[in-house]
Amino acid sequence: MLPPVGYSKAQPGQVCRLQCSLYGLKQDSRQWNLELCRFLTSHGYTQSKSDYSLFTKVSNGLRSYIVVYVDDLLIAGDDIAVIAFVKQALHATYTIKELGLARYFLGIEISRSKMGSFLNQRKYIMDILSDAGLTGAKPAKFPLPKPEVDL
């Protein structure tokens, strides 16, 4: 690290000793979130008022969505050109690693077919059952008693 401009006591070859770390501070995640929000809004995305982790963009009637979870982003939509552009811009600015088509995100499995996409939480439920020691339990068609409704 170079000494700050105007600091005249530093001699060539000397280094600065930091009194606190540059990484791992409490405000790191907040600063990253602000930076990412600025980046996405500067590229035409609008942050949802009801879920701050969702960003949307509509251009020429086509939509694209970005869901943010800390430093993981899920990009989806029907505008392939916008998706490719935002991925390229993200990579140029932050050097991202693209993992391809999503198969699993935040406990949700994503399956694709010609009919469309199917979302399920089978793995998440199996993990809960495993943690509770109930993987050998007998399944029921309707696990809760049906309410009796008089019309």
Verbal overview:
It is built from three helices and seven strands. The model has no long low-confidence stretch (mean pLDDT 85). The chain starts with 27 loop residues before the first helix and ends in a 19-residue tail after the last helix. By secondary structure, the protein is α+β, with helices and mostly antiparallel strands. 5% of the residues are buried. Strands 1-2-3-4 form a four-stranded antiparallel beta sheet, with helices on one face. The chain has helices at 28-42, 80-94, 122-132, and strands spanning 46-47, 54-59, 62-69, 72-77, 104-105, 108-113, 116-120. A hairpin with a 2-residue loop joins strand 5 and strand 6 (108-113). It has two domains: 26-100; 101-136, no CATH class. The radius of gyration is 24 Å and the shape is extended. The longest helix is centred in the first third of the chain and has 15 residues, at 28-42.
